[in-house]
Amino acid sequence: MDTLKMGIVGAGGIARGRHIPAFQKMADQVELTGVFDQNIEAATAAADEFNISCVADSYEKLLKRVDAVTICTPNIFHAEMAKQALEAGVHVFCEKPMATSVEDCQVMVDAANDSSKILMIGYHYRFHREAEAAKKLMESGEIGDPLVIRVQALRRRKVPGWGVFTNRSLQGGGCLMDYGCHLLDLALWLTNFEEVDQVLGQTYEQISRDPDQVNEWGVFDPEQIDVEDHATAYIKFKSGATMLFETSWAANILEDKETLSISGTKGGLDVYPFTINSSKHGMLTTSEAQWLPGEADTGLAQAQNFVRSCLGLEQPRTTPDQALRTSKIISDIYESSTV
């Protein structure tokens, strides 16, 4: 197979803003064969916009025409659609998070294991050039063993006022499921998914419940929102390492902030911006990278990895087992918050 026939499932913003444009840049390896959406008008609009020849009127018909699908539906549908595709012999790229429950994630893992096809979850932060540099440094041993990992994925008053982001029945959660999962997954990947010993978490939704809303990202009904807008967690690993984690859509802070730092036994690093903190030769030094290799467009880099994995040219950077472990911690944070 020289060219992968790709189907798009869900014709919303993430498909039209990230995935379809990325695949179009890979015309030598990908043919955008068809699009399916329960909203036929949305599917038709996407097909017209991106010159996709087929608008499928059922998911089953799409699966018969393609080698792979990119699933961009609300989270609640991820497991069922991925399982159906894998059982049909079709490779699957699925947007994050993997699913809304650990049980559904396991269904996806089992389906992938039973098939000979690729299942890759869309944790595109792993494709940031800073993340790739941090991974190389961690694998070199220069930082030593991780001791304390600090993660912040914070936005100031930016609850998504569009789509179904604030609908728990469709999404499974709020800022943790939608945004914080990216940096949580990245931190776990950089530290080789150490085995978890304990998770203590807390979620909040008080800010979004305030009827006097000030919100940069559109309008939502504070009486209808039923997901968290802020979450914190303390995660202890069996190695003794710990993670301090915080994420929010609506924090009352000075400005948006993305932080991922790792303090190790030999040194430390910060991912954003990428810096290395060392103590050598009787000195304390901090080094900044002047240039980082890699693709600046993380959506394109992710698409390339998935397509090449389907074609047998690479290994997927995100494996089903890893995505399941990320989802298990997310589930543990929610469960801890309700105790």
Automatic annotation (TrEMBL):
Domain Gfo/Idh/MocA-like oxidoreductase N-terminal: 5-123
InterPro entries, A to Z: Gfo/Idh/MocA-like_OxRdtase_N (IPR000683), Gfo/Idh/MocA_Oxidoreductase (IPR052515), GFO_IDH_MocA-like_dom (IPR055170), NAD(P)-bd_dom_sf (IPR036291)
Residue stretches making up the GFO/IDH/MocA-like oxidoreductase domain: 133-269
Name the record gives this protein: Dehydrogenase
Source organism of this protein record: Alkalicoccobacillus murimartini
Lineage of the organism: Bacteria, Bacillati, Bacillota, Bacilli, Bacillales
